[in-house]
Amino acid sequence: MKEHSIKLSILNTLADGNFHSGEGLGEQLGISRAAVSKHIKGIQAWGVDVFSVQGKGYKLAQPMQLLNQQRLQDKVNVPLALIPVIDSTNQHLLERIHSLESGSVCLAEYQSQGRGRRGREWVSPFGCNLYLSMYWRLEAGMAGAMGLSLVVGVAIVEAMEKLGIEGIKLKWPNDLYYQDKKLAGILVEMSGQAGSAAHLVIGMGMNLRMAGDTQGITQPWSCLSEVTEQDIDRNELAAELINTLENALNEYEMSGMQGFVERWNRLDNFLGREIKLIMGNREVSGVARGINEQGGVLIETEQGIETYIGGEISLRGI
Ligand code: ATP
Ligand code: BTN
To answer: Transmembrane region positions (predicted)?
Structure first.
């Protein structure tokens, strides 16, 4: 833990985007220049683009605005834990699920084991994106969870539109797309028994200004900096997304999917386009026709309109 706190202090200093000498950083932290150099390597391993110039010191490739627990907490009504370096924000909440208040949030600057659906990796470099998870106790039980995950996606895109950020679309079941590239992903994980309340962890990763090593990403991706020229305040955006999630989940508990089908279809990235659904070894091709009230995806094939639902389905444009 102490090791992390030294790296975080170094990053706090480097965040201004200026040069800082190894000697100065060492003095500030009471460690040697060699120790600073070792910590810089660790920082690079978190995916941060930091370089050194002889005689000048260390510098970030671009300034960094770090998340701030107090600023965030002042803007939201739910308990919030900012843990800068973590395995996975979803995992953190899942491990504590029975002691949490519904609505509790976990945020991180870096995830060593960020994950997507079906255990795939979510590439999570330090300080340039958002990684946030919220715990929600859903009285409707597991049956309500599918619709809920779609509602969350719609609510997030609508919140972005309110901030003047246009052009973000949805890919069933819960990805945010910009110009056919993945901008953000939502992962809903749950624990609960049939017939009782479901304990859900809703995780979202959104790319803001991704830098550093992105080799682990196996499909086209996008960043918010491509979508808008606005200088996005990470703390403001994180708080806005937390409030959006909380409102959407409350609304879903009260009214379910009512009204959401049209809201989803307006934002559907593939509506009217040729797609295929991949289900294990099986594929179905046709034209995307949006979603239904159960949260299933509709595809028009030669046999007519068919509905598919379930966590094992992948949708791909053709
Ligand atoms: P589907 O579930 O429909 O197959 P998917 O292809 O988006 O959707 P997921 O199961 O959601 O796949 O897994 C995450 C995917 O996101 C992986 O393909 C991975 O390469 C990609 N990915 C990982 N990190 C990022 C990131 N930071 N930004 C965009 N995409 C990412
Ligand atoms: C996907 O598209 O497959 C979903 C990606 C979800 C990533 C987020 S980042 C915050 C939370 N913690 C994780 O480990 N995953 C989710």
So the answer is: none
